Amino acid sequence: MGGTELDEMYFQSLSIAEVKLIRPRKFGDCRGYFSEVFREKWFRKNVADVGLVQDNESLSAQIGTVRGLHFQLEPFAQGKLVRCTRGALFDVAVDVRVGSPTYGKWVSAELSQENGAQLWVPAGFAHGFMTLKADTVISYKVTAPYSAEHDRGLKWDDPAIGINWPKMTTYVLSEKDSSQPSLCELPVSFQYVKV
Questions:
Q1: Which domains occur in the chain, in start order?
Q2: pLDDT band at 34 (very low <50, low <70, confident <90, very high)
Q3: 70, 103, 150, 192: the active-site residue
Q4: HEC states along the chain?
Q5: Which annotated residues bind substrate?
Q6: Global pTM value
Q7: 180 is in an annotated binding site
């Protein structure tokens, strides 16, 4: 885990090293708490040296709502810094970089209003989430603006990927997310470049 006791934020690489879990510190007293949730210089030094150009937010009213798995093609490929500002969600990143040693593998983290954790999902990964509470709000910063022409997706429950989604009695998906291609049907979108 990166960071020192003097830092306001800690981070750790998940089992796919490019995906990072960030935990901002909370400073509390009788009034509540204060937390610095983003500092560009710290982020560029410790997580990814990229610019974040747009903030997005979505509300999912029902528990078991699935959004994803989404990504965008170059030149509008998006890295995403994701946080949950109300409720809780199961957040997932899937490596779609052809040639990567972790191609088709996934990592996840639970993000919630309570834990304040954030997930960095770099370009070259499909991103999605499932709400664990009703009226969950997700907020995320992205490295490129939305482009409908470059918008792509991946089947959320593809058995070849095998995401261990939380069990729900029902899942709420859009028609678009219900009809995304599986990994084996996905055209080459990103090539892995070893650094």
A1: 10-179 (2.60.120.10)
A2: confident
A3: 70
A4: CECCCCCCEEEEECCCCCCEEEEECCEEECCEEECCCCCHHHHHHHCCCCCCCEEEEEEECCCCEEEEEEEECCCCCCCEEEEEEECEEEEEEEECEECCCCCCCEEEEEEECCCCCEEEECCCEEEEEEECCCCEEEEEEECCCCCHHHEEECCCCCCCCCCCCCCCCCCECCHHHHCCCCHHHCCCCEECCCC
A5: 31, 36, 54-56, 67, 80, 127, 151, 176
A6: 0.91
A7: no
Annotated catalytic, 140? Answer: yes
Is 41 among the annotated ligand-binding positions? no
Q: What is the pLDDT of residues 102-138, one digit of tens each?
A: 999 999 999 999 999 999 999 999 999 999 999 999 9
Indicate the range of 28-32, 52-56, 83-87, 133-137 predicted with least confidence.
Answer: 28-32
